[in-house]
Amino acid sequence: MTLGGATPATLALAGVSKTLGGVKLFTEVNLQLQSGQSLAVIGESGSGKSTLLHLMAGLDRADTGEVFWAGTAIHTLNNNQIAAKRLRHVGLVFQAYYLMPHLTAQQNVELPFLLAGEKPNTARCLQLLEQVGMAHKTGSFPREMSGGEQQRVAIARALALNPPLILADEPTGNLDEDNAERVLQVLLAACSAQDSALVMVTHSVKAASHLNHKLNLADHHLTERTQTQSNPVAGP
Ligand SMILES: Nc1ncnc2c1ncn2[C@@H]1O[C@H](COP(=O)(O)OP(=O)(O)O)[C@@H](O)[C@H]1O
Ligand SMILES: [Mg+2]
After folding, report:
1. What is the atom index within ligand 1 of the atom nearest the CA of 45?
2. I need a surface site. Which of 73, 193, 231, 234 has the fewest CB within 10 A?
3. Which domain holds residue 180?
4. For position 39, which CATH number holds?
C-alpha cells in the first residue's frame, strides 16, 4: 500500500498507537513530513518520545496504525527488508548514541558506507566530523570521548549517507549550550542542503524552537503546540 499524492511524504504516520508494559503511551498519532521540513516533538520524560521515534525508524512496530517511508507502508516489509531500507532512508541518532566501541570516530562515521556495500567517502566523513566540532578526535575511540562528544560523532554518522529522513532522540541532551547550538545547526543545515526531513524529540523547548514545526506529546496524544506552553521540565 502506498500513501496518495504525487510526491509521497518522506515520513507519514496514520492512526499510530502504542502500549508498552500495559501502559498506553500514545494513540491515534497522525502526521506527514515532507522533504526539507523539520519537526520537534516535545514531551516530558516518560511520555513516549523515544518509543515514538523508534516506531518512525521501524525499530519497533505500532499496535495499530501505519508508518510510511516515502509512501511505503513499512509494516508490509519483513525485518530484513526494513533494515535494508532504513540504511538508505533513515539517519538515526539514538539517545544512547550506540557507537561501535572498537571503532574510532572516523570509522564509526564511515560504517554506514560499509554496511551499504560502498567504499567510504572519507572526505565527506571528515567534513561531517569537522561540522560537529570533532575534527580533533577522528582517531579517538568512544571510551576516550565524553557523552557529548559521542553524541556529536553519532550525528555525523547519521548524516553520512545523506538520508532523506533524519530522526534524532534528544540530540542536544548531553551538550553545553554552544555545542547544542552547533549540532542543531548541523542537523538543520543537512535538512536544507540535502532536502532531508528532520524529526527531533526533546524535552527542551529551547532546542525545539529552532525547528519549523513543533508538536507536544502529552496525555497520550500528539497535538499542536500553543504559544503559551512553557517548558514541560519543571523547576530551575
Ligand atoms: N520495553 C519496554 N517495556 C515496558 N515499558 C517500557 C519499555 N520501554 C519503555 N517503557 C516505558 O514506556 C514509557 C515511555 O518510554 P520512552 O519512550 O523511553 O519515553 P521518553 O523517551 O519520552 O522518556 C516509560 O514509562 C518507560 O518506562
Ligand atoms: Mg527518551
Report:
1. 23
2. 234
3. 11-224
4. 3.40.50.300
Nearest protein CA to atom 1 of ligand 1, as residue: 20
Q: Are 37 and 212 in contact (CB under 8 A)?
A: yes
Average pLDDT over residues 62-87: 95
- Domains in the chain: how many in total? 1
Query: Is the CB of 20 within 6 Å of ligand 1?
Result: yes
Ligand 2 centroid to Cα of residue 46, in Å, is 7
> Do the domain assignments include residue 111?
yes
pTM: 0.92
Q: Does any domain span residue 190? A: yes
Residue 46 C-alpha to ligand 1 middle, in angstroms? 6
Q: Is residue 6 part of a domain?
A: no
Q: Is 112 in the pocket of ligand 1 (CB under 6 A)?
A: no
What would the pLDDT profile of 81-90 be if each residue is shown by its tens digit?
999 999 999 9
19-41 pLDDT per residue, tens: 999 999 999 999 999 999 999 99
The answer to whether residue 5 is domain-embedded is no
Q: What's the chain's average pLDDT?
A: 92
